[in-house]
UniProtKB/TrEMBL annotation:
It comes from Aequorivita echinoideorum. This is Electron transfer flavoprotein subunit alpha/FixB family protein. Residues 3-194 form the Electron transfer flavoprotein alpha/beta-subunit N-terminal domain. Pfam families: ETF, ETF_alpha. Keywords: Electron transport, Transport.
Length: 317
């Protein structure tokens, strides 16, 4: 019996969220006294999987899987889970993982909990804590099925290293049941910049920046930090920034390590979407702005003075 973890890759390179999922799976494996088996699909990038806790890698190589197909990928993982007699399958919270999870749950007759934020509170009964209500609250759910599927929330666990060394085996699941009659034809990346979903650091601007012409200083700060840029809802509603940057209850959720809010008041609907970020910094000229209550660090002052100075200092490092 082992724990299966799906290690997603992009152009053959294992994603950081997948390495975090491996480390997390190792944490559960230690709780349950078992080991971690990572499953890769069309990727040879297995060197770091042992470092984060996998003791075995099942490498699937099949041209039919070059493009993501939820049913087929779910079947690959189901066959791997059955092959390894796994009781737990760990996924990330990426769009692809969320897309394949229901099919996998049906295939394995397993209970699935997404957005899990920490190691199970107990493994017998199996209870996990996860984000609910767009990250405004936590729930603890007991998964009662024999097999369990966990979607690890982004940046919830971290890249904890381990002593394990992974052996690699080719794994050839039977995909005869799939006619692959639906395929993703192309993916247009909207931008080459760091996206909000992948970002460790997000620099976000609000109505306090007065107009789109003032975003240059935020772009400069974001570039210096290797960060993604984001904005509050009114900013995107007014067309100052693209809707893809709108974060909050009705926008994208942010779970970065660092979230810097500039000229954003901190309305509850905004905070709902960024609560999962680890460290929140606010720059606002109104000391009574609600964001200061939610932030870890705050700077009271004019963003037009603070941001360029901050960027200048950061460039020295
Ligand atoms: P404001 O509230 O106008 O705040 C601007 C801030 O900038 C102020 O605190 C001000 O002190 C500060 N400021 C001004 N000048 C400077 C300066 N020179 N230097 C530094 N600081 C300065 N909002 C979201 O963001 N995301 C959502 O998903 C979202 N969903 C919503 C859903 C619903 C159903 C509703 C009703 C509202 C939603 N909102 C959402 C809107 C939300 O309620 C707020 O209106 C919005 O977040 C405010 O945006 P803001 O902070 O940019 O602007």
């Amino acid at each position: 019996m082992s724990i299966i973890v799906y290690t997603e890759s992009e152009e053959g390179k294992i994603k950081k969220i997948a390495l975090e999922a491996v480390a997390y799976a190792k944490g559960i494996a230690d709780q349950m006294g078992t080991s971690v088996t990572a499953v890769t699909v069309n990727s040879n990038d297995t060197s770091e999987l042992g470092k984060y806790g996998a003791s075995k890698v099942l490498q699937v190589s099949n041209d039919k899987l070059n493009k993501f197909n939820a049913e087929a990928y779910a079947d690959v993982l189901a066959q791997a889970a059955k092959n390894e007699d796994a009781k737990v399958v760990v996924l990330t919270s990426s769009a692809n993982s969320k897309f394949l999870a229901p099919a996998l749950a049906v295939n394995l007759d397993a209970g699935y909990v997404p957005n899990v934020v920490s190691l199970p509170e107990s493994t017998s009964p199996f209870k996990v804590k996860h984000n609910v209500f767009t990250n405004k609250a936590f729930a603890v759910t007991e998964i009662k099925t024999d097999r369990k599927i966990i979607g690890l929330g982004k940046n919830s666990y971290g890249l904890k290293e381990s002593e394990a060394a992974a052996s690699t085996e080719a794994f050839s699941p039977n995909l005869d049941a799939h006619d692959f009659d639906m395929e993703i034809v192309s993916v247009d990346k909207a931008t080459e910049k760091v996206t909000i979903a992948d970002a460790e650091v997000v620099v976000s601007g609000g109505r306090g920046l007065k107009g789109p012409e003032n975003w240059g200083m935020l772009e400069d700060l974001a570039k210096t930090l290797g960060a993604a840029t984001a904005c509050s809802k009114p900013v995107s509603d007014m067309g100052w920034r693209p809707h893809s940057e709108h974060v909050g209850q009705t926008g994208k959720p942010v779970a970065s390590n660092l979230y810097i809010a500039v000229g954003i008041s901190g309305a509850i609907q905004h905070l709902a979407g960024i609560n999962a970020s680890k460290v929140k910094v606010v720059i606002n000229n109104d000391p009574e702005a609600p964001f200061f209550k939610a932030a870890d660090y705050g700077m009271v002052g004019d963003a037009f003075e603070i941001v360029p100075k901050l960027t200048e200092k950061l460039k020295e490092f």
